[in-house]
Specification:
This protein is of the alpha/beta class. The chain has 9 helices and 14 strands. The chain has a domain of about 180 residues: Nucleotidyltransferase, domain 5, CATH 3.30.420.300. β2 and β3 form a beta hairpin.
């Protein structure tokens, strides 16, 4: 297997994804479930080498650019947060200790906001990737996921952001609450209904969540409709709370399907102009942009 110029890595709490690149061309891709949450500090290098060892050259050092929770206090090396307003990427990158001399691992710092208190770690790389492909863009980025982010961008800087626990709440409620007995599958009609209800009366969210269970017991509500309604209720309540971000703004959604499309559908009912962008593509573009923060001698991915 051919050696690579550099390695890009997205290392979250649950998963590790790596790409081996020649310049900006992806030669190899691999992934594992060895996320930050499953590793002790001395387990990060072996977890990485399990995926990338066969891509490395024995005659040169291969730089590895990493984003995500691997840079948290519990990660491989802490990459301290940078305070907003600031550009999404900034140096210096944190260098992780490596025993294998073929590796030089650099971790991208996250972003922090003092008031209201909030943090980003990983999504700043997607924001940077988006801006490299959309120079001069001003507006709001929506990054749905386990922890959804709304990010206001202006003049190439992250001005402010807000995080919502929407994805994690959906997982907990659908898999570990009483609602797990009432939800399964997916039916689009239930999603639209939930979004409308969540937007209209977000203060009734908790009552409407339990009504999903009651409707299943008393009315035989279709579990597929119920599960989609659960998602819609949570996303609708998120949109109600995030109104200061999307009102009167152009919005770009960076995420994976089908979740990104669900957000686009919900925002479409509010007549918000929306574009959608693939999360993996934006992550890779951001990781490539981070190479420019390395010393000149370590920039094989920058032409």
């Amino acid at each position: 297997m051919s050696a690579v110029d550099w390695i890009a890595a997205d290392w979250g709490t649950s998963h590790l994804r790596v790409w081996g690149l020649k310049g900006d061309r992806v030669l190899h891709h691999a992934a594992s479930d060895q996320g930050m949450g499953r590793l002790t500090r001395d387990g990060f290098e072996p977890a990485l080498l399990t995926l990338v060892a066969k891509w490395l050259s024995d005659t040169q050092v291969t730089p590895v650019i990493v984003c995500g929770m691997v840079g948290s206090r519990q990660g491989w090396v802490e990459a301290p947060y940078r305070g907003v307003p600031c550009t999404p990427l900034g140096g210096p990158l944190a260098q992780a200790p490596c025993r294998d001399l073929r590796l030089s691992v650099h971790v991208i710092p996250g972003l922090k906001q003092a008031k209201p208190a909030d943090v980003i770690r990983g999504e700043e790389t997607q924001v940077a990737g988006f801006l490299t492909q959309n120079p001069g863009w001003d507006g709001v980025l929506c990054l749905p996921g386990t922890h959804s982010k709304w990010v206001h961008v202006s003049a190439g800087e992250v001005v402010s952001f807000q995080t919502f626990l929407t994805g994690e709440m959906f997982a907990l409620l659908s898999e570990a609450s009483v609602l797990r007995h009432s939800v399964a599958g997916w039916a689009e009609g239930g999603f639209a209904e939930g979004v409308a209800q969540g937007m209209e009366r977000p203060e009734r969210l908790l009552a409407r969540l339990f009504s999903i269970r009651a409707e299943g017991l008393l009315q035989g509500r279709d579990p597929a409709e119920a599960r989609a309604r659960l998602s819609g209720l949570l996303i609708g309540a998120e949109l109600a709370a995030a109104k200061p971000y999307w009102l009167g703004q152009q919005v770009a959604i960076i995420g994976a399907e089908p979740l990104a499309q669900h957000y686009a559908q919900a925002l479409g009912t509010l007549s918000v102009p929306v574009t959608t962008h693939d999360a993996t593509a934006m992550t890779l573009a951001g990781l490539a942009a981070a190479c420019a923060l390395l010393p000149q001698s370590e920039r094989p991915c920058v032409n």
